[in-house]
Specification:
- With 202 residues, this protein is α/β, with parallel strands linked by helices.
- The protein has one domain: Flavodoxin domain (Rossmann fold), CATH 3.40.50.
- Helix content is 36%, strand content 19%.
- Strands 1, 2, 3, 4, 5 and 6 form a six-stranded mixed β-sheet that branches.
- Helix 1 links the parallel strand 1 and strand 2.
- Helix 1 crosses helix 6.
- The two termini are 30 Å apart.
- The mean pLDDT is 94.
Length: 202
């Protein structure tokens, strides 16, 4: 079986080495993907000086081109984001804005370079909004060419107005853990199918 490559973009507001619940869930997704012959890595976006913009390179030390190179080398993209005020994090929104540039980047057959890549989402928070955040991120990723598998989202939401984070709540194997395993199985399956049979030319 061919080994696939996954990139998890951790969209925490906190720079390393601060602990991050969204990064923890992203790492759990990578562990589950490994069971399906998927290799990968996690990149905490805020550590890399990514600039605001809608191009592939905003210049002047922009950290996005290096992350984009990893993304183009992968068949699977996972966005791991916390919920803030019922929304994806500002870092997540910046990533989606940078991905808008992919609409103008095409292969020799006129297809965006993101065609044939699949996307998944991991969400954590202490308030309602996991479904809303998932919907926003999936719609944006689909708009720029990513394919969304069945059940490709996993999340954990703590009690509203409380301060317990996912990283402090302990494992949830029968809930979030099961959902993460389903995400990994479906995402790897679809990624292999698209490697074997790509979308038609534009």
């Amino acid at each position: 079986m061919t080994t696939l490559r996954a990139l998890v973009l951790g969209c925490s507001l906190k720079a390393s080495p601060a602990s991050s619940s969204s990064e923890l869930l992203g790492r759990e997704v990578l562990t589950a993907l490994a069971d399906h012959d998927v290799d990968g890595e996690i990149v905490r976006v805020v550590d890399h000086g990514v600039r605001f913009g809608v191009s592939t390179d905003e210049g002047d030390g922009d950290g996005w081109p290096a992350i984009r190179a990893k993304l183009l080398d992968a068949q699977i993209l996972v966005i791991a984001t916390p919920i803030w005020m019922g929304q994806p994090s500002s870092v997540c929104k910046m990533v989606l804005e940078r991905l808008d540039a992919e609409l103008a980047e095409t292969d020799e057959q006129g297809r965006p370079l993101t065609y044939g890549k699949v996307a998944a989402v991991a969400v954590v928070g202490n308030e309602d909004g996991a479904h809303h955040v998932t919907a926003e991120v999936f719609q944006a990723l689909n708009d720029v060419g990513f394919t969304v598998p069945a059940a490709a989202a996993t999340y954990w939401v703590g009690e509203a107005m409380q301060k317990v984070d996912y990283k402090d709540a302990g494992p949830k194997p029968d809930t979030t853990g099961t959902t993460t395993k389903t995400l990994a199985a479906n995402t790897a399956h679809l990624a292999r199918l698209l490697q074997e049979a790509s979308y038609p030319a534009a």
